[in-house]
Amino acid sequence: MIRLVPMSLRIGFVFDDTLDVLDGVQQHIVTLGQELARRGHEVHYLVGETHDSPVPNTHPMSRNVMVRFNGNRMRIPLPANTRHIREVLDEYDFDILHVQAPYSPFMAARVLDHAHQRTGVVATYHIASADLASRIGGRALGLVNMHSHRRVDEVIAVSQIAAQYAEQTAHVRGVVIPNPVDVDRFAGASPTHAIVQGDTASAHSSEGPLAVFLGRFVPRKGAELLLDAVEYGEEHDLFPRGFHVRFAGKGPLLDECRERASHLRTPIEFLGFVEEEEKPKLLASADVAIFPATGGESFGIVLLEAIASNAGVTLAGDNPGYRSTMLDDEDSLFPVSGTDRARILAERIARALTDEPWAADLHAREAGLLDRYNVRTVTDQVEQVYGQAMAALTHIVRDRCPQGPGTRASSKCLRALRVEHAPQRGFRAPVGIGCTKASGVNLRTVEILGVVDNELAARRHFVAHEQAEDVVRLLGVLHADATQQTRARIHRRVGKLVRVHLT
C-alpha cells in the first residue's frame, strides 16, 4: 500500500509576486506554508522580487513590474533567469512544486519547464473573472502556457468561481479547497480603540457602535457604497446613537472618499494602511464588519478573518466569491448592484446594531464556518492532493520505468511518459471531481476564437482592438521596463492569435 503523504516533504511554493506585501495569495501561501512547516515539511518560496520576506527559505527569482488587470494594479515578473531557476531546482530537488497562479508565462511557466521529472506538480487557481478583457486575456494565456500546463499533476481551485475560471481559460477541472485562515491567531485578538499608525495613534471615542471597513480603495472593493449607505442611514435616522465608522486601507480613491466623508454627520475615521499585527485588533473592535466588494473576488479571506476575530456581525457584498465563502447565507450578504443597494445595506447595518437576537443568531452561524476554513483542515486536504501527485509518479516509475527512481534513464522515461499521457491526463482531479481531457492545439485555438466570436461579434471593431490591447498589456508587453526583445516575442505569440479574429 502506497503511503499518500510521506513523513516529510520538500515543498516549493511558486508565485510570481512579491512576499513584501501580504495580499490575498501571499497570505494563502504563507499561512499554508507555516502550517506545513509546523508538521515537519521543509517549505521554500520561489517568488518574484522580494526584499523583506516574513518566512525563511525565500528565493527571489525575478524582477517585478506593475500592470493593471482584473480591476487591480498587480505585479508581474519580467522573464526569470532560467540559469537561476535550474540552480535552485537542482540544489533543493523538491518533492512537490506547488504553483500559485499557473498562468504566468514569465516565471511560473519557466519553473515548470525546468522542473525535475520526479517532482510532483500541483497548481492552485485563485482568479475570478471580472470582465470580458480578463476572460480573453486568460484564454490567451492558456494557449501561451499550454506546454507548461501539461506538466501539472493535480489542480486546486480556492472556490467554485475560481474553478470556473480554470475551466474557461485552460479547459481544466480541479478540486475546490478553500483559502486557509489561521483561526488561532485572530481568535486571540483583543478589541482595541487605538490603532497605532507609525508614531501616532487613532484615539476615536469608544462610545457607541462601530462599523469597520478593511480593504483597498479601488472601485470594486466598494468603499463608496458604504459611504452611500451611511448617507442614507443619516437621512432616514436609521443608526443608533454614537454610531461611527473606521476605514482601513489605501488606494487611489482614498482622497475622494475622505472628501465625501467630510460632508457627513457620522464620525468617520480613515486609518490608512494597517499592519498585519494590528488587523485582528481592528476587526475584533467592530460591532459590524462590512466588506462591500462588487466583484472580481474568488474568495473572501477577509470575511473569515473578521469572523475569527470575533467581530459582532460580518456583512459581505453579494458577489460570487463572497457568496461561496459565506455558504449562501442571505443574512450575511447584501446586493452590490441596483438602485436600492445603499438602502438595503443601511438597513442591514441598522438591524445588526439594534436587533440583538437576530445579530446573535447570525454571529453564531458565521462562527460555525471557521472549522471549514481553519488552516489545519485546509492543510489536511492539501496534503492529500500532494500524496495523490506523488502516488501517481510512484506508479509510473514502478510500472513503466524499471530503471529505478532518480536515475538519468528513469528521468528520460518519465519525461516521455508525461508527454505521452498529457492529453489524456490534463489537470487531473481528486475523487469526486470529473476529469477533463486536454485538447489539441488546433482544437483549443478554434475553441478560444469561437468564444471570442460569440462574445464580440456584435461589438464595434474599435472595442475589439481595445480588448486586444488589454491582453498585450496584461503580459507586460507595453510596460516601460520590459525589453524590446520580450515585446517582440509576446507580440508574435499572442498578437497573431488575437489579430486573426479581431482585425
Task: Set out the fold topology.
Blueprint (H helix, E strand, L loop, with lengths): L9 E6 L8 H15 L3 E6 L10 E3 L3 E6 L2 E6 L4 H11 L3 E5 L7 H7 L5 E6 L6 H13 L1 H4 L4 E4 L2 H11 L4 E2 L6 H5 L8 E2 L2 E2 L8 E5 L8 H13 L8 E5 L5 H8 L6 E5 L6 H6 L3 E4 L9 H8 L4 E5 L2 H6 L7 E2 L6 H14 L1 H12 L2 H4 L1 H26 L7 H18 L15 H16 L4 H14 L9 H19 L1
Distance between the termini: 57 Å
> How large is the share of residues in beta strands?
5-15%
Corresponding CATH architecture of the largest domain: 3-Layer(aba) Sandwich
Percent range of helical residues: 40-55%
State the major sheet.
7 strands, parallel
As for the number of domains, it is 3
Task: Round the Cα radius of gyration to an integer and report it.
Answer: 24 Å
Output the number of helix runs.
20
> Residue ranges: pLDDT <50 for 5 or more in a row?
196-205, 420-503
CATH C-level name of the largest domain? Alpha Beta
The number of E-state strands comes to 17
Q: What name does the CATH topology of the largest domain carry? A: Rossmann fold
Strand order of the largest sheet: 3-2-1-6-7-8-9
**CATH superfamily membership of the largest domain:** Glycogen Phosphorylase B
Quaternary organisation: single chain
The global form is elongated
Mean pLDDT: 78
Computed structural class: alpha/beta
Characteristics:
503 residues, Rossmann fold, six-stranded parallel beta sheet, disordered C terminus, elongated, alpha/beta, seven-stranded parallel beta sheet
